[in-house]
């Protein structure tokens, strides 16, 4: 047996929680584990050992994109099989990320990073998102909810948590395609401002405002929220869904201070974001190909920063399994619309996004990330309901 195959045998032997069969580049096959294999893995070309040792996330991710590595079986379930092994590299992303330099998220870099991901084209996202074009964790009241139902649930759930009143001013930081601010204006009569750095989102959200005849009630701006600080009247409510993960670790204190400065006294803010149990950088494959500049904050980082800014935590709720189900739906929609996606994206891009959607679903199901909604107030607020009953009434 060659030294390269000896390395792979050692690497793969204890990697999975299920039995796998591996077909190597020379046509030989090996089974790792007992009983019937659940997955089959193809290593079509030798992958340099030193690259795997240096960074298995980046090396194996690129190998799949380039068809050097391939699978028979459900990609998500294969990754879950690795996550179930607590000693696997999937639980040690930060130790590999330390070899890379983290650049500060300036206004210019933030704009570039966000546009890299969100300006892939509304035509692309519309093929596998639901018709609301909501690209964040949904809320499943029951397992039979469609992804559309669950996204409508999520928006309504957030709006209820904010306890909106007619005439209030609402800011949505990273407003996406505008569904939340539009619903807030329609259902609660608030005056809403949504800001995004994505040209494609700005274009579509602005169209939706006009279609709903909400000019004068809802405004969409193509800008960094940091450009608003000190230049606008204060808001009664501030919401942010899936934005802070793009800010970078060094800008977390900036975000909390800016929210404090833009909120009225006793104002309410909801932060909906992916969270980590402990501090650490995301893996380099995700940062290089999917979310440049991304950082997943720990729960204690966020709560500590709230305290530093006299922001009082009222409620914190984990939606981890909701995001697993959301990503599972997106991955299925992606595969079901592959013929249309192939008309606008090449094979390497498709494999990259298949891996991204399924790896994220696996990570929320059995892995290292969570997602929380934090509800907090500037100073004390004695007007919010004392129980959660209001959240579950139609």
TrEMBL record:
<keyword id="KW-0489">Methyltransferase</keyword>
<feature type="domain" description="DUF7884">
    <location>
        <begin position="7"/>
        <end position="93"/>
    </location>
</feature>
<dbReference type="InterPro" id="IPR029063">
    <property type="entry name" value="SAM-dependent_MTases_sf"/>
</dbReference>
<keyword id="KW-0949">S-adenosyl-L-methionine</keyword>
<dbReference type="Pfam" id="PF02353">
    <property type="entry name" value="CMAS"/>
</dbReference>
<dbReference type="Pfam" id="PF25371">
    <property type="entry name" value="DUF7884"/>
</dbReference>
<dbReference type="InterPro" id="IPR050723">
    <property type="entry name" value="CFA/CMAS"/>
</dbReference>
<dbReference type="GO" id="GO:0008168">
    <property type="term" value="F:methyltransferase activity"/>
</dbReference>
<keyword id="KW-0443">Lipid metabolism</keyword>
<comment type="similarity">
    <text>Belongs to the CFA/CMAS family.</text>
</comment>
<protein>
    <submittedName>
        <fullName>Class I SAM-dependent methyltransferase</fullName>
        <ecNumber>2.1.1.-</ecNumber>
    </submittedName>
</protein>
<dbReference type="InterPro" id="IPR057206">
    <property type="entry name" value="DUF7884"/>
</dbReference>
<dbReference type="InterPro" id="IPR003333">
    <property type="entry name" value="CMAS"/>
</dbReference>
<keyword id="KW-0808">Transferase</keyword>
<dbReference type="GO" id="GO:0032259">
    <property type="term" value="P:methylation"/>
</dbReference>
